[in-house]
Structure formats: C-alpha cells, structure tokens
Amino acid sequence: MTPGRSSSVDSRPGRLTAWILASRPKTLPAAVAPVIVGTAVAARAGAFRPLAALAALLAALLLQIGANYANDLFDFKRGADTETRLGPTRVTATGLLTPRQVAAGMWASFGLAALVGVYLIHVGGWPILFVGVLSILAAVAYTAGPLPLGYHGLGDLAVFVFFGLVAVVGAYYVQAHELTAVAFLAAVPMGALITAILVVNNIRDADTDRQAGKRTLAVLFGRRAARIEYVLLLLAAYVTPVVLWLACGASAWVLLPLLSLLLAARLIRAIFTTLGPALNITLAGTAQLAVVFAALFAAGLLV
Question: What is the pLDDT of residues 123-149, one digit of tens each?
Fold first, then answer.
C-alpha cells in the first residue's frame, strides 16, 4: 500500500480498466449481431465480400463504443447518474475518468469509425457517407443536444432504426450494392431484440430517470406498458422468420431462431416478476438472446 493512501483508493480500477468499463463491453455484441445477420443475407444472395463485412463490423463496434462514451459523459452532465444508480459503473460520475478524457475518447472512437467509413464509402458509394454521418449524429444526440433522444421518449425508436434497419441493411448494402425486401425484413428481429435490451434498462431505471427528468417510455407510460412493449418486441422478432418462410420463399431452415423460444419465455417471465438490480440479469439475458437469435437466424438464412 502506498503511504498516505487509503485501501479504498487503492482498490479503485486503473486507467485501462476505467476505459474498458466506459466502453461497456457487455453491450458490444449488440453491435456485432446485426452485421452478422446483414452479412448472412448478402451471402444468401451470393454477394458476400469479406473485407466489406469486416469493415462494417469494425465500424459498428467503434460507433457503439463512441456512443457508450457519449452516454457516460452526457448523462453525467445532465445529472442522470447518481449514487442511487442501479446499473453498471459510470466512469465520469464516479471520477474514474474526467469529462475531458471521456469526450476525447468519444471523438477518437468516432474518428476511427470515420476512417473505416472511408473504405466503406469506396465500396458502397456516397450513400454510406450519409448513413455514417447520421449514425454519429444520432449517437451523440441520444443524450446530448437541445432534444436528446433518450430523454424525450425517442430512444427506443432510435435504437430500432440504427441497430436494426441501418446496421443490417447497411451491412448488406456495402456487399450487395442493392436494397431488397429480405434485407429489410431481416433487420426487424435485430432492431426489436436490441431495443428490448434498452427496455429492460429503462424499466430498471424508471425511478431514477424520472428524478433526473429523463422521460423514457417506461417513465412516460409506466413499467407495465414497458413490459408489454418488451413482449411485443420479442413477438416481432419471432414472427419475422415465419414471414420469410411463408411469404418470401426462404427455406424452413430460416425458422432456426425458434429454438431460442425457451430462453425468450424465461426472460418474459422475469420482466414481469423482477425489479431493481436483479433486472441486470434479465438485461444480460436479453443481450444473450439477441446474439443467439442472430447466430441461428444467420445460419438459417445461409442454409
């Protein structure tokens, strides 16, 4: 122990650990899963391009990390992160990193994503520039600016659009150079399941969000409505493969995600019976469901 320092100070995470905490590694599979599905749709169409797929995956991860840094920073500035917080550690609020450091990390992540985006623009054309700029703006605007999306009941819609439509269709487009109904349909389960992760987060934090003036849907309409939203999102995810099979000529293998229904049922039961920090387990389980569903869905599309 260093003389003059208490054991509580010594037990604080180091700088590298703080950066890892700020990146929220448990959320990163939510960035990976949609790209996997979009790439599977491209491969199904005979348009798989490994370098473009890898670049899309890297850009998605960097954008997610940048968004996580932005949320950590701007939630702190708006007073949403207090000692009563039930979720994971926030590095700005706890003083593990300064606001200036987190801001630098945020812009560095977005800058690296933009560099990867240069290659994606090269292979996908100028529409990718528009999508990339919009993605960065949305990541910042989620908790910052005059009308932060997450504070005005628009967070769920933003997550569905960017983690579903933009991520899946974008990953498909940079490889296939076209837009198809199948790509958009394949985006629905990913958008729905990743939005469901946010819903669990908002149910858990409804009380502290209300105190901070953060008007999520769980705050605006109550926890019961948010739980119903969660069920509807999971239902949308599981109906989509059936639609692809019955209406779009996909083989029955596209129904592989139905193998994860037992996990989904357990999560639905938990969302109606759990409150407080125990919802962190449900949140992690929902993230796991999104990854398992994506893997099964991608495999079904390929077969």
Answer: 999 999 999 999 999 999 998 988 899
In the numeric block, the tokens 């949403």 are attached to 80
Dist CA 280 CA 83 (whole Å): 17
Q: Establish if 226 belongs to a structural domain.
A: yes
Instruction: Give the gyration radius of the chain's Cα atoms.
Output: 20
Q: Which two tokens stand for residue 229?
A: 């939203």
Q: Which of 135, 139, 202 is nearest to 169 (CA)?
A: 135
Token representation of residue 166 = 């933009």
Q: Is residue 2 part of a domain?
A: no
Q: Which two tokens stand for residue 161?
A: 């659009």
Spatial distance between the Cα atoms of 225 and 260, rounded to a whole number of angstroms: 24
Would 142 be classed as within a structural domain? Answer: yes
Q: Which residues contact 64 (CB under 8 A, 6 or more apart)?
A: 27, 28, 30, 31
CATH number for the domain spanning 90: value is 1.10.600
> What does DSSP assign to residue 210?
H
Which pTM does this prediction carry? 0.90
Q: Domain range spanning residue 283? A: 16-302
Q: Under a CB-based contact definition with an 8 Å cutoff, are residues 297 and 239 in contact?
A: no
Structure tokens at 26: 């448990």
Domain count, the chain: 1
277 domain residue, yes or no:
yes
Please list the helix, strand and coil fractions of the chain in percent, rounded to the nearest 5, in that order: 80, 0, 20
Residue 2 has pLDDT above 60, yes or no: no
Residue in the structure block whose two tokens are 């790439």 = 39
> Residue 26, Cβ neighbours under 10 Å: how many?
14
pLDDT tens for each residue of 58-91 = 999 999 999 999 999 998 888 766 656 566 778 8
User: Six-digit token pair at 281?
Assistant: 């387990």
